[in-house]
Amino acid sequence: MTEWDVKKLRILRTLRDRGTVTAAAEVLLMTPSAVSQQLTNLSRQLGVPLLEAQGRRVRLTDAAHLVLRHAEAVFAQLERADAELTGYLRGEAGLVRVGAFSTAVPALVVPAVRLLRTDDRPGPEVRVREAEAAQAYELLSAGDVDLALSLAAHAPTARDPRFTLLPLLADPLDVALPADHPLAGAPGLRLADLASEPWIFGGSGPWSEITTAACEAAGFVPEQAHSASGWTAILAMVEAGMGVALVPRMASAADRCGGGVAMRVLESDRPQRHVVAAVRQGAERGPAVERVLAALQRVARTAAQGSATRIVQQN
Asked: Using CA atoms, how far apart are residues 129 and 171, in angstroms rounded to an integer?
């Protein structure tokens, strides 16, 4: 019978995900030669070639991809077993490490932690790590966090066998204008009405892509007057009359926009970004992880119900 070594299979999966032996070794805290040796041993155990030379690099063979398709089911089953065992030993009071992007921490994670603390039952211990979307999934895959929050546009596909994805929230994008802007109080404001305005958004990354995509869907390419990635900086420039910006409602709530900024709901365009939670496939059955996910979902529902009313009343 063929010998399947789970540790070596994880090394093979890491090589697939990272692309090079050096990058895989860095994540695994191993030397490149040790990674190569382990994979050579695995190839010998399975009786098939797993790697082939491609210039100065190596690539996975078709046999390696076949092995990993079956290994993913093994990894998921081990996650389920670990979740059940942890639940048996600790119940719902285990440790849950959460990786989340910056605006999700104050808007979703912190309220969820507060909600868990109000429960009479012993709750899980939550440790938070701020991380951008790509890093969050790297941390999740490596086992450094147990739950990741990211934007759906930058999450792995639903067919990725490593993760289970759960939709949390459709976060509307509102437009921030200086309070004395001629359109600050205009009825039925559309994104296209701001086509000639100077825009403020990041020079690269998710938010730059989201802003550009929303404006292009409205029929124009935004002229970037200023570049910033932090919402405090963006809203300060809007207040100073330096431009306009699309702002997620989660971010505007967290930054508590001052009186110099008018937040307007775009009734006709209704641009949104979608927030998802992800866990390693099988880990969602752990009682502590389930408790944290349930709290996040409850907070997300409350945010979705209350945010539109708050913005309308503000204007």
From this structure: 21
- In three-state secondary structure terms, 248 is strand
- Split at pLDDT 50, 70, 90, the class of 72 is confident
The token duo for 99 is 């990786």
Entry field: residues in the chain: 315
Q: What is the number of other CB atoms lying within 10 angstroms of the CB of residue 92?
A: 19
pLDDT for the residue numbered 157:
76
pTM to 2 decimals?
A: 0.70
Single-letter code of the amino acid located at 286: G
- Is the model's pLDDT at 311 over the cut of 50? no
Name the amino acid, one letter, at 208.
S
pLDDT at residue number 132: 84
Helix or strand (DSSP H, E) at 69: helix 62-90
Contact 246, 214 (CB under 8 A): yes
How far apart, in whole angstroms, are the C-alpha atoms of residue 107 and residue 268? Answer: 25
Q: Are 197 and 181 in contact (CB under 8 A)?
A: no
Distance CA 16, CA 20 (A): 8
Query: Taking 50 as the threshold, does the pLDDT of residue 314 lie above it?
Result: no
Q: Is 226 helix (H, G, I), strand (E, B) or coil?
A: strand
pLDDT digits (tens, 9 = 90+) for 125-145: 999 999 987 788 889 988 899
Residue closest to 245 by CA, chosen among 258, 260, 226: 226
Region 3-14 average pLDDT = 87
| Paired tokens of 246 | 């699309």
C-alpha gyration radius of the chain: 23
Q: Which residues of 216-227 are buried (b: 16+ CB within 10 A; e: fewer)?
A: eebeeebebebe
The percent helix, strand, coil of the chain (3-state, each to 5) is 50, 20, 30
Q: What is the DSSP letter of 48?
A: S
Find the helix or strand (DSSP H, E) in which 268 lies.
none
User: Tokens 């100065």 correspond to what residue?
Assistant: 56
